[in-house]
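From the shared-data thread, chain only:
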Amino acid sequence: MSKRFKGKTCVYCGLENGSTTGDHVFAREFLPVEHRAHLPQVPACEHCNANKAKLEHYLLTLLPFGGNHLESARLLTANVPRRLAKNVKLHRQLAGGRSILQHPMALPFEGRKLSDLFMLITRGMVAYAFDVQIPQGYSVNAGILTERGEEITRPLLAMKANDRAIASLADGLIEYEGAQAFDNPFLTIWRYQLYGGVLFADENSKARATKNIWAISAPEPLPGLFAG
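Structure, as tokens:
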């Protein structure tokens, strides 16, 4: 491990001098081996790193099923069978909840895990891209937007920003765009897209089918913008 990450403040939980590793904000396994160099890294404590890895394992197993990128099929064939073979419990959990849609199928999916992971990813991306750490008292909301959330959030990302981060990793397997407010460095908005646009939907919420995952860091929670 690079010494530059050891003993720093964990970007996820704020534990001072607590980082033991440099965590890849987007897990390397999301990408083919040849595209894993120079990914965003941030300091993380052992506890946060382990919890994030559990969320990543779940999503890495399911997301390739709904991928629309040319590499999705290769990742599905190469990685998903062995992940499922090691996690019998995951088979039993694939019921109810939000769906990943890939015509003509809909795969049951736990949307809470998507939200939890992208809350952490957003904390990591703010630290990596804007060189500030979101205070622990701030609210980080992430996931699929409701219809009202789409109407409010999409124009905000297009507004003039103090700083902006835009990237496409592995020829579009992961794309992100983030903007930082002028008057508050911790107020940010992010749009993510995975595997060429995995289509998410939830029949039990006000969210429409969408290929985008959104996140906002703000001083207070944002009720009504994200699907529950």
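Strands lie at 21-24, 41-44, 98-102, 105-109, 139-143, 163-169, 174-180, 188-194, 199-201, 213-218.
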